[in-house]
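User: Structure please.
Assistant: Input sequence and predicted structure:
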Amino acid sequence: MQLLTRFSLMAVMATLAGQYVQAYPLDGAGEATTEVATINADQGTTGVTPAPRRLVRRLGNNSGQSMSNAMDVRVPCTGQTDNCDQNAYAILCRGAPRVLQKRSDLGHHNYQESGAGHTPFKGDRSKLRQEGVNRPPTPPSGEAYDSAEEYPWQGTLQGGNTAFVFPVQPSSQHSQGSRIRTMYSQYGIENGMWFHITAFDNCGGPYCIAFNNNDRTACSEPAVKAPIDWAKWIWKRASPKGAKYWFDFMGTKGGFSLG
């Protein structure tokens, strides 16, 4: 039996498995651990202790260990067209970053700093006018767009007071966390790792489609064929910490009415 560190083991398994290797999760700071493993050279089998393992990309390019080696990911959007289309618009048309670092420890702080935690789209029209925001008309389904979606996401280093906020229906917002957690699990993204959004899957929104095709013409066209054009419903918190909440309109397609 030959004794190998985790890094040696990963090199061997990368040769055997190709793009993916079996490895332990990173620790909370994003550093690789150095558990010891054994390889049976005669039988070609591998034994690793402790038992829990997952599939992650091998160390090197797209490993997620740094911003320059961010892991390429495709965001799952089934049942989340509004949220994903908003995210795609923020990246494609407003210059929001598509390379993010997972920082779940900052989630609550960023949620408050972005203003999303203030629930700016909830309340009557007079309250909305006082804070500079508005929301789309309530559809026949009866669910108002009074929850707040922010991008970059609250659980990332890039979230917080520079995030864009959009009005979204609560049912869509409540399931978004599960969607993002599923993506993290699928790619083995641990806290502290970097990832690069390359596509929004199963999203029929016009900005998702434009993002996936790297087509920025959607940002300058006079109208987008969709139930709601999110270019008309995007804000960013402008008030300093401790001051009265106020949000600046960040859209480019005809503005909005506070009436």
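The radius of gyration is 22 Å.
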